[in-house]
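Entry 14. Structure prediction run on the chain below.
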Amino acid sequence: MSFLVFLQYLKKYLKLIVYGSFGIIVLVILFDGIIHFNRFTSLKVTDSCHQEDLNAELQRRNNIIKYLSILVERYLAFEEKMFKSTSEARDLLNKARVSENAKSEGLRKALPGIVALAEQYPELKGSQVVQDFMNELVESEKRIGLMKEDYNANVETYNLHRKTFPGKIYGAILGFDVLEYCGNQEEPLKVPAID
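Output returned:
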């Protein structure tokens, strides 16, 4: 008799057990989907932050290259004027071989031009300034390399999560695509041309 009672009891609550089990399974899948959505979103936000940092450093590199080219151009023009003035002073001294007095007069005429040129460009300190800019450029390139590594490490984590089960299913359902590594994006990482 107890078995018959058990079957009646089971029949009475069978719908409740089936619906309850189905509801629990749906809730587990729903919570797992929320967890995966949050994971994908946090990885995407981290990826965006790394991308912005990389873009800022690339802009810094572009500015350094631009200013370096301007500086080198100015310094070369300054050097050319200095050599030209020195050459003119030497020519004046050679032409004035007639007397000591004439040599002094030629030197006095050429010297103000050289002094005026040197005073006109006091900020140009020769190759040290250019070397400092080159060092900044090297440091910037190192930072860009490190930022590329950080970006690619984040992309690798994201893509691994996106390509493995159950992330593959949730990623497809929630619309999260696979990200590209930094090395595959040639255009934004090109070294700027110097005009």
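The chain has one domain: 2-28+41-189.
Filed with the rest of this week's runs.
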